[in-house]
Specification:
747 residues; alpha+beta; six-stranded antiparallel sheet
Length: 747
C-alpha cells in the first residue's frame, strides 16, 4: 500500500508534526479538546478568531481531504520549544457548560389508575383524566404533554441561541429522525442543570440515541443500536492490518434465555380489633395467644405507660412502654376512693363529655396522688380505642407498615388513598347546628350526639373466636379519622379524629352511644323520662349515665411490606415475571436472536415499582400465605401469587393493557438486558484518508496524522455497550404512573 503524505492546518496556519496531530468525532456531551503545535510567528493569524477550522488534506492535492469546522481556540500555552506555541482547540460542546438550563416538563400532580366504587367491590379502571389535571399547567407544551424529542428540541434551541453569541452563526442541532422517536413520552422532569448535563438527562429518555459533533460543527443525534456500524466497516475498503481486525460477534451463548424480573410486594392488610363487654369493674378482655393474633391479624389496644416505673404481669416496665389496657388497669390497682380497679365500663362512660373520672375516683385530698392519677386518666382518654399495636409475630415478618392504600384512588385527582378504618363512632353537634335544626325540623328530630354504625353489619362473619368480625359490606362506613404509624419498629398505629374548621361537630367518640340512654333535645321540653338523661350534663335522679355501647369492633386496612424470611422459592420472597426474548422485540431496533445463556434475574427497586396486592376478604387465606403467616404448598417450583397482584395485566407480548402495570416495567427491564447482549461488530478498524461519522455502536472516530505525514482513520467498536436507561423502554402510561406515585421505604 503506497504511503500518502498528509498536511494539516488550522485556519490556514500550518500545524507542526513534532507529535501526532489527532482529532476525534466522539459521542457524548463532553467536548473533544486537542493540542496542536504551531510556529510562534503565526500567533497573530489565530488571535481574535471566533472560530477556526482544522483542515487535513493530501499533500499537493487540495481536493482530497476534509475539514472540521466551528472549532474554538481555548488558549495558547507555551510550546515544546522557544520558537513554538501550543494551541488548545475544542469543539462547540465546551460552551455548553457555560449555559444553565431551567425547564419543567410534564410535572405530575397526583396519579392513580383504579378505584372501587363500594368498600367490598373489585377495582375498576379510571376514565381518562385531562392533562390539565394530571400535570401542572406551566409544565405542559401549549396544553399538551411534551415528548422527549420535543423537550430535547426546547433545550437545544436555547443552547443554540446561547452559542450564537460566541459562534456566529450557531451550527445548530439535528434532532433524532424517525417517527418512533417522537412517540417516546416524558414524565415529571425538572431540569435545573448546566446545558451539557441537561442534554445528557434528556438522552436517557431516548433509548439507543447518542450525540456527536460532525465535520460541519453540527450536533447530530444518531441511532446507537441499529447495527449501522457494519456500513462503516464495509466502507473502509483499504484497511490497515496493524490497527485491528473487526469481527461480528454472536452473543447467543451468553444472551439469557429469559429474564426474571423481581419485584417487592406491597400488601394491603386488614387488621381487626375486638373489645367485648364486661359485667363488672375489674374484668379483663378474653386472653388469646400470640399465634391466634397473628393468624387472625388482630390488634391490641395499647397505652403509653405514664408511670415512671410499674410492675406489670410480673415484669418491670418503664415510662413510655406500650402496654395493653387490660394489663395496665390491673397493675394500677384500685383508685383511692374505689374498692376495685378501673374497668372498660368506666372508660365507656368517662370518654363522654361532663363525666369526670378523676373526680369520681380520686378525691383531691392528697396532691401527689392526684397528680399521678391525673396523668394516668389523661393517658387513658388519649389512647383508649385510638392507639393499637400490631401483633409482634406479624411485625417479625414485616419490613415496614405504611398508612396508605395501594390502588384505591380519587376519581378526579387520581390520588392514592390513605389507610382506612371501619368502626362504630359517635359525634357531638355544636350548639348552633342543634338549635338551627330544632327550629326547622322540630324537637324530636334534633339531637346532641349522633351515633354512626360504620363497622360492617351484614357481611359474613369470618372469625372462629366468637368475636363477630365480619367481611366488609356495601354499607360499611369509614371513620372520619387519619390513620398514622407512630412507631414503625413496634407496629403502633393511631386513629386521629378529623375536625373541620367550621366545627360542625365539637367532639368525636370511638363507639356508638347506647341508644337507650342517649340524651335528646326533646327531653328538655318534656321534663325527662324516668331513668334517661336529658343531656350529657343533666341526669335525673336515679337515671343512668350515658355510655358507649359494647362490644366494639374495628377494622383497619393499611399497607404492609413483608419480609422475605430468607425464602428461596420463586414467587414467595419476591414477585417474579418471566420475560422471553420474543416479548421485547417491539422495544428494540432489531429482533433478539437465539438465546442460550442461563436465565438472568433483574431486581426492580421498590422506589420504582412494587407488586401491589389489594385486600379482599375473599382472598384472606391467600394473602396470609403471601405474608408468610399460613404455610404454602411444599412444591419445589414457582409459587404463583400473580392472581392477587392488582397492577398486572398479564400481557407481555405487546403494549400493557394496564398503564403502570408490572408487565410494562418487566418488559422494559428485559429489553434493557437484551439490548446489552445484542449481536454486534467488535474490535478496531482503520483505513487511510476517509471521513466517517460515529454510528451504531461506534462511539468514536479518530483522525490521526503521524509525524511522518501518514494519515489514518480509526473506528473503535467496544466490547460492551453503554447501559441504556430503563425509562426509555417504558410506555407512556407506565411512565405517568411510576414516576410520581411510589413512596420509598419508611424513614
Amino acid at each position: 500500500m503506497a504511503v500518502q503524505v498528509v498536511e494539516a492546518s488550522l485556519s490556514g496556519v500550518p500545524l507542526l508534526r513534532l507529535r501526532p496531530i489527532v482529532w476525534s468525532l466522539k459521542a457524548g456531551v463532553d467536548p473533544v479538546i486537542r493540542t496542536f503545535d504551531i510556529d510562534s510567528r503565526d500567533i497573530d493569524r489565530l488571535t481574535g478568531l471566533d472560530s477556526v477550522s482544522l483542515r487535513i488534506r493530501l499533500a499537493g492535492d487540495v481536493n482530497r481531504g476534509f475539514t472540521f469546522r466551528q472549532l474554538s481556540i481555548l488558549d495558547m500555552p507555551p510550546g515544546p520549544r522557544p520558537n513554538m506555541r501550543t494551541v488548545r482547540v475544542a469543539d462547540r460542546r465546551w460552551v455548553w457548560r457555560y449555559k444553565h438550563i431551567v425547564r419543567s416538563f410534564n410535572i405530575r400532580r397526583k396519579v392513580g389508575v383504579r378505584r372501587a366504587e363500594a368498600p367490598n367491590e373489585e377495582l375498576e379502571g379510571q376514565p381518562g383524566i385531562l392533562d390539565e389535571i394530571r400535570y401542572a399547567p406551566f409544565s405542559l407544551n401549549q396544553g399538551k404533554r411534551w415528548t422527549a424529542v420535543e423537550a430535547l428540541d426546547s433545550i437545544a434551541t436555547e443552547v443554540s441561541t446561547f452559542e450564537g453569541s460566541h459562534l456566529q452563526p450557531s451550527p445548530g442541532f439535528i434532532l433524532p429522525q424517525g417517527q418512533g422517536f417522537r412517540q417516546l413520552p416524558l414524565e415529571d422532569i425538572d431540569i435545573d442543570d448546566r446545558a451539557d448535563t441537561a442534554i445528557a438527562r434528556m438522552l436517557e429518555y431516548l433509548p439507543g440515541v447518542g450525540v456527536f459533533i460532525d465535520l460541519l460543527g453540527r450536533a447530530i443525534f444518531y441511532k446507537t443500536s441499529d447495527q449501522s456500524e457494519a456500513g462503516v466497516v464495509a466502507a473502509m475498503t483499504r484497511k490497515i492490518d496493524d490497527i485491528g481486525f473487526p469481527v461480528f460477534v454472536d452473543k447467543q451463548s451468553t444472551r439469557p434465555r429469559c429474564v426474571n424480573v423481581l419485584f417487592d410486594y406491597e400488601v394491603e392488610t386488614r387488621l381487626d380489633y375486638f373489645e367485648q363487654s364486661e359485667a363488672s369493674r375489674g374484668g379483663t378482655t378474653l386472653r388469646i395467644t400470640e399465634k391466634q393474633k397473628e393468624e387472625r391479624l388482630l390488634l391490641e389496644n395499647v397505652i403509653s405507660l405514664p408511670d415512671f416505673s410499674l410492675l406489670i404481669q410480673g415484669n418491670r416496665e418503664h415510662q413510655g412502654t406500650w402496654v395493653e389496657f387490660a394489663d395496665l388497669l390491673l397493675a394500677w390497682g384500685n383508685p383511692p376512693s374505689q374498692s376495685s380497679p378501673i374497668n372498660l365500663s368506666d372508660l365507656r362512660k368517662g370518654i363522654l363529655p361532663n363525666v369526670d373520672l378523676l373526680a369520681a375516683f380520686v378525691p383531691p385530698t392528697d396532691e401527689a396522688t392526684t397528680q399521678i392519677w391525673t396523668a394516668r386518666i389523661g393517658a387513658l382518654m388519649q389512647h383508649w380505642r385510638r392507639t393499637f399495636r400490631i401483633s409482634q409475630r406479624l411485625m417479625g415478618r414485616t419490613v415496614s407498615v405504611r398508612a396508605y392504600r395501594l390502588v384505591t384512588v380519587d376519581s378526579v385527582t387520581g390520588a392514592r388513598a390513605p389507610a382506612i378504618a371501619y368502626a362504630d363512632y359517635s359525634v357531638m353537634r355544636a350548639k348552633t347546628p342543634i338549635f338551627t335544626e330544632t327550629s326547622v325540623r322540630g324537637l324530636e328530630e334534633a339531637f346532641f350526639a349522633m351515633s354512626v354504625r360504620g363497622y360492617p353489619q351484614t357481611g359474613a362473619v369470618w372469625d372462629d373466636l366468637g368475636f363477630g368480625l365480619r367481611n366488609i359490606d356495601p354499607g360499611s362506613k369509614p371513620m372520619p379519622v387519619d390513620v398514622s404509624v407512630v412507631d414503625q419498629e413496634q407496629g403502633i398505629i393511631q386513629l386521629s379524629y378529623q375536625q373541620g374548621p367550621a366545627r360542625m361537630f365539637s367532639l368525636w367518640f370511638p363507639g356508638e352511644i347506647d341508644p337507650a340512654f342517649t340524651p335528646r333535645v326533646s327531653r328538655l321540653e318534656f321534663g325527662g323520662v324516668a331513668g334517661v338523661p336529658i343531656s350529657f350534663d343533666t341526669i335525673i335522679s336515679g337515671g343512668r349515665i350515658p355510655e358507649l355501647a359494647s362490644p366494639w369492633r374495628l377494622a383497619v386496612i393499611l399497607t404492609i411490606v413483608p419480609a422475605n424470611l430468607n425464602e428461596t422459592r420463586p414467587g414467595v420472597a419476591l414477585h417474579r415475571i418471566r420475560v422471553e426474548p420474543g416479548d421485547v422485540n417491539g422495544l428494540l431496533a432489531r429482533p433478539v436472536g437465539a438465546a442460550n445463556g442461563p436465565p438472568m434475574d433483574v431486581r426492580i427497586p421498590a422506589s420504582l415499582e412494587t407488586a401491589r396486592v389489594r385486600w379482599s376478604d375473599t382472598n384472606r387465606e391467600r394473602i396470609l400465605q403471601l405474608l408468610g403467616i399460613l404455610p404454602v404448598s411444599d412444591v419445589q417450583g414457582d409459587i404463583d401469587f400473580s392472581d392477587l397482584i392488582s397492577n398486572r395485566s398479564h400481557n407481555l407480548a405487546g403494549a400493557s393493557a394496564l398503564p403502570g402495570g408490572l408487565d410494562s416495567v418487566a418488559r422494559a427491564a428485559a429489553a434493557r438486558v437484551y439490548a446489552s447482549f445484542a449481536d454486534r461488530w467488535q474490535g478496531n478498524v482503520g483505513t487511510l484518508l476517509q471521513a466517517f461519522n460515529p454510528t451504531g455502536s461506534i462511539q468514536e472516530i479518530t483522525f490521526e496524522v503521524a509525524p511522518n505525514g501518514v494519515a489514518t482513520v480509526q473506528a473503535h467498536l467496544p466490547e460492551e455497550r453503554p447501559e441504556m436507561s430503563l425509562f426509555g423502554f417504558l410506555d407512556a402510561g407506565t411512565r405517568r404512573i411510576i414516576l410520581h406515585l411510589v413512596q420509598g421505604p419508611a424513614a
